Amino acid sequence: MERADVGGLELVYELRGSGEPVVLIHWGVGVVWAEPLLEEPALADRYRLLSYHRAGFGRSGRIDGPISIADHAEHCRLLMRRLGIARAHVVGHSSSAVIALQLALDSPAAVHTLTLMEAARPAPATDVQGAFVRDFAEPAVRRYRSGDWAGAVETWFRGVFGPDYRGALDEGLPGAFEQAVANADAFFEHELPALQQWSFTQEDAARVTPPALAVLGEKTAPTFPERRELLLSWLPNVEPFELPDASHLLHAENPRALAERLAAFYARHRLEATV
What we know:
This protein is of the alpha/beta class. Helices cover about 45% and strands about 20% of the residues. The protein is built from twelve helices and eight strands. The longest helix is centred in the middle third of the chain and has 19 residues, at about 125-145.
């Protein structure tokens, strides 16, 4: 991987392939994320793929004090500019789908299409969402604050992936659990507060005009269908896709089907057609 200075912050990144650029923003529980998609021929053979470690994660620069979702979106824009990428297909998953949405709001010229894989927010005020906070989010935070980082990650993962997640995680994203524990401070100290403070209204959504693909795993946790329905009702140019045989782990469980669907989506919304 290579390094780039972005506004005084060092980000580690990898750029591979050729073709229309696709920016893969990793989720908030660690940088071991993009590998399954990077290896799929439907994407690897046709597109220029950018993946990177976000601020505070992996081998990128540490952060002191609060960092916002808008900050992460700006880092992405600056990295794209540094690498000569003016406009791209942007992919986000869970908390990074929120960053992708913010990037589309703040820098619309940089976003050609959006892929939103089970966005962490916006979350409607329902009993299902309340149960997730009570049964998983709050206990995970308590474990983190007590110093039990592995227990905090385990609790969070059971809430978002389901109780039997570990086999699929280890097979699809080797080392992801350990990497999430190593970056628990970045997630619980910075990412989670930033998500809670992030505001995205129906009026904001009306300004997100790029073609969007809202992805849901066929076997996902109950919190995510409600969140996707909100985006489907709010975004002006969005289409749904349900990924078979997948939970919130999505591309780790069924990377080929997801990569092929992304390639088909990009083929219908070619970047060159707008240049």
